Amino acid sequence: MPYDIRLACPADMDGARSLMLDTFYREFGYGYRPEWHQDVIDLDGVYLETPRHALFVAVRGNEVVGTTGVRTVGPKSPPHPAWLAEQYPSGSTAQLFRVYVRPAHRRRGLARELVKRACEHVASTPGYTRVYLHTDTRVEGAEPFWKSVAVPIHDDRDGDPLRFQTLHFEIPL
Questions:
Q1: Element (H, E) at 98
Q2: What residues does 133 pair with on adjacent strands?
Q3: pLDDT at 148 over 90
Q4: pLDDT-derived band of residue 149, with 50, 70 and 90 as boundaries?
Q5: Alpha-carbon distance 88 to 92, whole Å?
Q6: CB 95 within 8 A of CB 34
Q7: Are the CB atoms for 127 and 165 separated by under 8 Å?
Q8: Which of 56, 88, 92, 121 could share a disulfide with 132, CB 3.0–4.6 Å?
Q9: Is the bond into 161 cis (omega within 30 degrees of 0)?
Q10: What are the backbone dihedrals phi and psi of residue 152, each rounded to the nearest 5 degrees, phi first?
């Protein structure tokens, strides 16, 4: 059965939320954190009803198996360096969020296609000048994937395996 990769609609929200929450609990191991994940509770409001924001999904049958969100916010300082927040300001920066694929559907190009669609959306939406994202390099496969589609701009790793090992990227438009 083929995958349908598209802009999300209201009918996709429960499946997208399930995938995101499963990722927080099963993949990341820290669960839902309201200070980081407030968008997940109100997917409709954040991604469908907010101008210039978008959520893309990969669907197989009736199951959402992949997501990628676009929001018009830059990195926050703290926890990220002040210079990074200044270089990637909210409003003109499109930040990618929630680039997740269920484990059983990985290695099929879904994340790459979701990111491509998100970047096409950004490029065709007035007001955006950059695409920014960051990832925790402790997540298996994250660093090589992002290095294959984006340009590293800041390495914030400190070597402590108990703390986030953040790598920041830009995707040229």
A1: strand 93-101
A2: 169
A3: yes
A4: very high
A5: 8
A6: no
A7: no
A8: 88
A9: no
A10: -65, 135
